[in-house]
Amino acid sequence: GPPDRGWGWMIVAGCFLVTICTRAVTRCISIFFVEFQTYFGQDYARTAWIHSIVDCATMLCAPLGSLISNHVSCQVGIMLGGLLASTGLILSSFATSLEHLYVSLGVLTGLGFALCYSPAIAMVGKYFNKRKALAYGIAMSGSGIGTFILAPVVQLLIEQFSWRGALLILGGFVLNLCVCGALMRPIALKEDRKTAPEFLEQDYVPQAQKQDFKRMSICSPLIKVWSHECLCYCSWKEYDFLLMPGFMVLAVSVLFMAYGCSPLFVYLVPYALSVGVSHHQAAFLMSILGVIDIIGNITFGWLTDRRCLKKHRYFCYLFAVGMDGLCCLFLPVLQNFPLLVPFSFTFGYFDGAYVTLIPVVTADVVGTSSLSSALGVVYFLHAIPYLVSPPVAGWLVDTTGSYTASFLLCGFSMIFSSILLCSARLVKKIKRMHLRSLSNDTGTKHHIWTNGVIAYSVTAELDQKDAEFLAADTNSYSNR
């Protein structure tokens, strides 16, 4: 099983730095907005696309990151991502138009971040079991801590070296991803080993090839690409979780959750300004959100690792998402600074809380061996709402003349996400209880797999009398 100690904490440190270099740097790109706007003389909407493209590319290409780390190695994937992201930022410092920035800062840097993000997070899941939520809490807090530290630093760099110099320095800073990649030492778990012997039993693999496989080391990642059938089988093994009912429900709920959480980070400051809060106080609300986000990451991770809550991590995740939804519903009523401060505290805390538990909940649904691929898909699903929801919210503000409709839509979207997962878990529980009562009545043993698929098998330990009775019954049937 996972070691839960030793080198695992170095993996957490590496993942923490990956989160700073990817998520925090992405958040800090919004600081360049005014600079890009004034330099290129473009409107807000066209400039805003840069941030949307980075965010979307990071999430959209997440499965590619999983694919490279599964087929080559996690270390190669993250190092390659670091080089791409750094190249994107350095090329951006020579930009002559917004279109140039869309490609270099948006697509190239976003792609680099995608290759690093999900493989690094999946590695933490492989090294931890008992303290998984705490490890994730620390690793994911890099986003909040990084934003808190990098935001003023980036502002200072822009003042000292102009936006071009600041992007060049950020490009150098992001090269630290290559160091993080070097830390990601691969680990072989029992679950990973199980798939190889199972593969050897497949009927369509020639006998001679089976012998070759047995002679060679099963752990070699290159074995997967030996033959076409082998590659198809391994690719299917990697993504067979896509047909799990549990994962399908999780995927739909993630779409609604990502839709609900995205616009708030874009529109909290404009909303605060619209209800008469000063610029300084509006920026302070955003800082509170960032800092409390970190506290949510770490404390919720630690809390859900306690023995009393460990079994209920799934429901803790639902609770956190639901609470964020409720906060959004109340937001239109909060129309002054003293009321908006508690909102920032509550929303920030629960935002940090559920972000920590996304990998934990995904691992509960698909198991550790498929975690890297599943996380790639989960983060990929974030991309579409991230790209769509801020413009939709902006359109609602323009049409209705107030922020109420936008915030209500966000709130209901997150609450729906929570209710959907809760209903799925309850259905699964009822099915399990029904089967348990059936097995007690009929003497059949059943296995319930992680995805909720049920397989029946008659108990091997039949009484001698039962066996005789069955034999007699079949004889009489054949005589007939």
From TrEMBL:
One of its GO terms (cellular component) is basolateral plasma membrane. It is found in: Basolateral cell membrane. CDD domains: MFS_MCT12. GO terms for biological process: creatine transmembrane transport. It catalyses: creatine(in) = creatine(out); guanidinoacetate(in) = guanidinoacetate(out). The chain crosses the membrane at residues 6-25, 76-95, 101-122, 134-158, 164-184, 247-270, 282-303, 315-334, 340-362, 374-397, 403-427. InterPro entries: MFS (IPR011701), MFS_dom (IPR020846), MFS_trans_sf (IPR036259), Proton-linked_MCT (IPR050327). Residues 7-429 form the Major facilitator superfamily (MFS) profile domain. Its main location: membrane. It comes from the Eukaryota. It is a multi-pass membrane protein. Belongs to the major facilitator superfamily. Monocarboxylate porter (TC 2.A.1.13) family. This is Monocarboxylate transporter 12.
